[in-house]
Amino acid sequence: MQHLHHLINLWPVLVAAVMIWVLGALWFSSVLFAKPWAAIVGRQMGEKPKGVAWGMICSFIGDVLLAFILDHVILWSHASTWMDGIHIGAITWVGFVAAIMYPQTIYEGRPLRYFTITGGYWLIAFVAAGALLAVWR
After folding, report:
1. Core-most of 67, 87, 113, 132, by most CB within 10 Å?
2. pLDDT tens digits for 64-94?
3. What is the pTM of this model?
């Protein structure tokens, strides 16, 4: 296996992580899907769950890891256009998010809307980060 750490540009990885993090803040805000998501998971609107700051920090760390790994996949696939990046983002979402999250949604007895809200966020995050990482070399 070829290691590509020397080809990784950390600026696009960090920008992609910030983009994913901000998208999550917007996606799960009252502007978009906070109300239906909160109803599905049993939270009251405006409720500040315990450990929210730690959750936001961990979320950003996870977003950095996601962007770093996605950048490796993009480099391994020789993707170099935004369409290539979208394609890689979409297929990695199908394989690593949808394939796990959809059955989990069923096992947890959650409605399909939960999967469409949460999975939709991750789909947009993966394809947007993929596009950015493919073109920013």
Report:
1. 67
2. 999 999 999 999 999 999 999 999 999 999 9
3. 0.91
